Structure formats: structure tokens, C-alpha cells
Automatic annotation (TrEMBL):
This is Polysaccharide deacetylase. Gene3D superfamilies: Glycoside hydrolase/deacetylase. One of its GO terms (biological process) is carbohydrate metabolic process. It comes from Thermococcus camini. It holds the Pfam family DUF2334.
Length: 241
């Protein structure tokens, strides 16, 4: 009886969540879905290995975007971690996309004026040259971004992915469904999050973004969610024409 009540509660909550989903755009360059891995840096080397091994198992490398922090906390510059840089190079060769996630990720660092944004962007671009990468996409730490900083990024032909919208260099803005289900996920909420994620994907006729943070996802419930949901995504590829 208790299990039946729990299942009913989950269904009601999921219906309420799904009914509030807006109509995100279908963005051909991302397709039906994309996996966004935030906070990619040497401090999460082992966690990133665990996450990418699971993504590899489902052959989803080509839809996975690695958002790199070039100097996490101001004390972990990529050039000081050649093994990590080599690992990112291997992922890139396998089809992963290497992109930019701020510079130090300290505070709301891109909620700033144009001059500061230019300086930090240049430092980030210089760091990614270690991987022979010119990023196409940017996520601001904590999604915090001033209008000045946004203008700087767009002027450099970089597409900015926000929490609810994608901002393109040509001036267009598209709504997106960007969800994160694995932020230090407690085991009792695993089933609810799985049902919720599947329902959200089913109701999304546009592009569905799954956001992941290394460390936050690397527990039993988080990795089980990822394992099951990636299998679900793989089975529902090419949903849109």
C-alpha cells in the first residue's frame, strides 16, 4: 500500500512539473538533446573519468559538451596539469566538444563590465589553445552574466547557453529546456527524478539539455540516474525530423 501511495505521489508531482514546461525551440545544431558537463577542471579529474566512461558506454560522445574552467579558483591553470590536458585531448578526438565555462569560476565573475569580460575571455581562449580549441559555446558560472559581458561574447561569435535561453551571435534568442537532476541526489528521490526527467523529455518538442556537475553527480544515486537516463536517451534518439 505504501509503495502504491508513493507511486501516485510521484505521478502527481511529475504531471505538475511537466505541465509547466514551456515550448523550447528545436535547435538543429544540438538535435534532440545535448549533455552539458559543467565545471570541467583538474580538480574533478577522477569524477570526470567516471562520467565519461558511462557516456562512452552509450556512444553519446558527439552530443556531449565539456565546459572547461581554464583556471579553477584562480589556482589551477590548465598548463600545470598536462595529464588532464591530455585526457581532454583524447575526449576531443573521440567526439566530445570542448567549450568554455568562465575563467576562474570565482563568484559571478562574468557579471562584470565589458573590459573585465574581454580580459577574462582572452585568458580563457588562450588556455584552450593548449587543446587547439576555439570554443563555440559558453556557459557563465552560475549562469550569471551581465549584458555587457553577453555582448562581448556574442561579438566574438560565441553562442551563450543560459539556464532558460540560448543566445546566438546573430542576435536571436531561443528558449531551451535545460534541466539538472543529479545535484547531490539523495537515493530516496532517485525514482522521482527518473520519472520526472523522462516526462520532461517526452513533453519537450524542442532540444532537451541535460546538465551535469562532476562531484555532484558522483554518488550511487546520481550515477544510477545517469546510467538509466542515458539509456533512455539513447533509445529515443532521432525523435525530431
Amino acid at each position: 500500500m505504501k509503495a502504491e501511495v508513493s507511486a501516485i505521489i510521484i505521478i502527481v508531482l511529475v504531471f505538475a512539473a511537466s505541465s509547466s514546461i514551456s515550448a523550447p525551440a528545436y535547435i538543429p545544431r544540438f538535435g534532440d538533446f545535448a549533455i552539458l558537463i559543467h565545471d570541467v577542471g583538474p580538480g574533478y579529474f577522477e569524477q570526470l573519468k567516471e562520467i565519461t566512461a558511462l557516456i562512452d558506454a552509450y556512444s553519446l560522445q558527439n552530443v556531449t559538451y565539456l565546459f572547461v574552467i581554464p583556471n579553477h579558483g584562480g589556482g589551477m591553470p590548465l598548463e600545470d596539469y598536462p595529464a588532464f590536458v591530455a585526457f581532454l585531448g583524447r575526449l576531443k578526438a573521440e567526439g566530445y566538444h570542448v567549450e568554455l565555462h568562465g575563467y576562474t569560476h570565482i563568484g559571478d565573475e562574468f557579471d562584470c563590465n565589458s573590459t573585465a569580460a574581454e580580459e577574462k575571455l582572452e585568458l580563457g581562449l588562450r588556455a584552450l589553445k593548449l587543446l587547439n580549441v576555439t570554443p563555440e559555446y559558453f556557459i557563465a558560472p552560475r549562469y550569471s552574466l551581465s549584458e555587457d559581458a553577453l555582448a562581448v561574447l556574442l561579438s566574438r561569435n560565441i553562442t551563450v547557453i543560459g539556464e532558460d535561453f540560448v543566445y546566438f551571435p546573430n542576435g536571436t534568442v531561443e528558449p531551451v529546456c535545460n534541466r539538472e537532476y543529479t545535484w547531490y541526489l539523495p537515493s530516496p528521490f532517485l525514482d522521482y527524478q527518473l520519472v520526472s526527467a523522462r516526462a520532461s523529455y517526452a513533453h519537450t518538442r524542442g532540444t532537451f539539455f541535460l546538465s551535469i556537475h562532476p562531484g555532484a553527480v558522483n554518488n550511487d544515486a546520481g550515477m544510477e540516474f545517469l546510467r538509466e537516463f542515458l539509456g533512455f536517451l539513447k533509445a529515443h534518439e532521432k525523435r525530431n525530423p
